């Protein structure tokens, strides 16, 4: 986890530090800064959402909804991965309560089939017979496609979509994208879709199983996935997690 962030890093190592190296959060950040260890963020701008299309768009059903356990709300989004001089496109399905990535697929195009593959992976992790789960996404052509919505309806999902261009309308999905890019993908170079897929499998396992999350009372997503009820948050501003 080369770009995990200072607060999470301190949480992971503080119990193993000898007494003479014990320090608080502020002192730890000073130590990181003085030794050139603070992570710098890199940004690209790649368009992955095309919502100006003729297909049916669904209303936002989760404006006042807060999940209290896993398997109540899944959020979906697409981000990019730099591959050689081009891009691959990563479809993600995340459980909004636990922040656990339950489905993903990497493709060399923005075709809906890759989002469908991610959805099918997520479906396999749901309890048998469960109904009424919210599925929230942007209004991109992939999520409005007949192929995608047919699967959602067949599995009794409540289909919800953003109603504007504000990223906060799908904030959890956007945040997971940002974590994967800023802490891993932006520092890596891939030569093929196959190579990127192999590395993403490892990264997503680390994210789910080992990375403490400030939105989950510093639990990992996999640990939070088996809990229920409100989870303590360790941040003040969502976009500065």
Can you describe this structure?
The protein is α/β, with parallel strands linked by helices and 241 residues long. Helices cover 32% and strands 15% of the residues. The chain contains 8 helices and 5 strands, in the order ααβββαβααβααα. It has helices at residues 6-13, 25-34, 112-123, 141-144, 146-154, 171-183, 193-209, 221-224, and strands at 73-83, 86-95, 101-107, 134-137, 158-161. The chain has a 5-stranded mixed sheet with strand order 3-2-1-4-5, sandwiched between helices. The longest helix has 17 residues, at 193-209. The radius of gyration is 19 Å and the shape is globular.
Question: Which strand order does the major sheet show?
Answer: 3-2-1-4-5
Structural class: alpha/beta
**Overall pLDDT confidence:** 86
Distance, first to last CA: 16 Å
Assign a percent range to the helix content.
25-40%
Biggest sheet overview: 5 strands, mixed
Give the ordered list of helices and strands.
HHEEEHEHHEHHH
Number of strands: 5
């Amino acid at each position: 986890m080369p770009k995990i962030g200072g607060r999470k890093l301190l949480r992971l190592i503080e119990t193993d530090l000898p007494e003479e190296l014990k320090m608080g959060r502020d002192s730890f950040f000073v130590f990181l800064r003085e030794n050139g260890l603070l992570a710098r963020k890199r940004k690209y701008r790649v368009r992955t959402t095309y919502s100006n299309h003729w297909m049916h768009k669904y209303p936002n059903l989760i404006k006042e909804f807060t999940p209290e356990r896993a398997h109540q709300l899944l959020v979906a989004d697409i981000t990019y991965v730099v591959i050689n001089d081009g891009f691959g496109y990563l479809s993600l399905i995340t459980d909004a309560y636990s922040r656990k990535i339950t489905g993903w697929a990497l493709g060399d195009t923005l075709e809906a089939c890759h989002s469908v593959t991610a959805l099918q992976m997520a479906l396999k992790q749901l309890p048998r017979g469960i109904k009424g789960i919210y599925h929230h996404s942007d209004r991109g052509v992939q999520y409005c496609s007949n192929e995608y919505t047919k699967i959602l309806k067949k599995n009794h999902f409540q289909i919800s979509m953003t109603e504007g261009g504000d990223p906060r309308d799908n904030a959890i999905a956007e945040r997971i994208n940002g974590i994967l890019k800023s802490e891993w993908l932006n520092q890596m170079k891939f030569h093929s879709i196959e190579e990127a897929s192999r590395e993403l499998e490892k990264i997503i396992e680390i994210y789910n199983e080992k990375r403490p999350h400030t939105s989950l009372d510093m639990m990992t997503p996999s640990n939070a996935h088996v809990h229920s009820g409100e989870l303590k948050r360790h941040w003040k501003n969502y976009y500065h997690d």
